[in-house]
Amino acid sequence: MKINFQHKTEKEIDVLSSEKELNKIILYNDDINTFDHVIESLIHVCEHNELQAEQCAMIVHYNGRCDVKSGSYEDLKPRCSALLERGLSAEIV
């Protein structure tokens, strides 16, 4: 029984950990912002490296949206606000 209890506890911890990571910032395409502005914003706000920011910008351009950051809501809220303040279209889901 002790093994089952430990196993069950580990599963509960895994579920709690993954629930914290379920939130994502979605960045949407617009006709206003330049690629350079989007890339610079992703580097500064979401801590992307240059290649990652460029790839996200291309995905947004061609697909209309891209998940640019995942994590806890508490971490994503100020990041999403910063993207919005920079004139980008984003939301947390």
TrEMBL record:
Designated name of the protein: ATP-dependent Clp protease adaptor protein ClpS
Source domain of life: Bacteria
A molecular-function term among this protein's GO annotations: peptidase activity
Keyword field: Hydrolase, Protease
Pfam families linked: ClpS
Domain Adaptor protein ClpS core: 19-85
Origin species: Candidatus Ornithobacterium hominis
Gene Ontology biological process: protein catabolic process; proteolysis
Keyword Amino-acid biosynthesis in record: no
InterPro entries in UniProt: ClpS_core, Ribosomal_bL12_C/ClpS-like
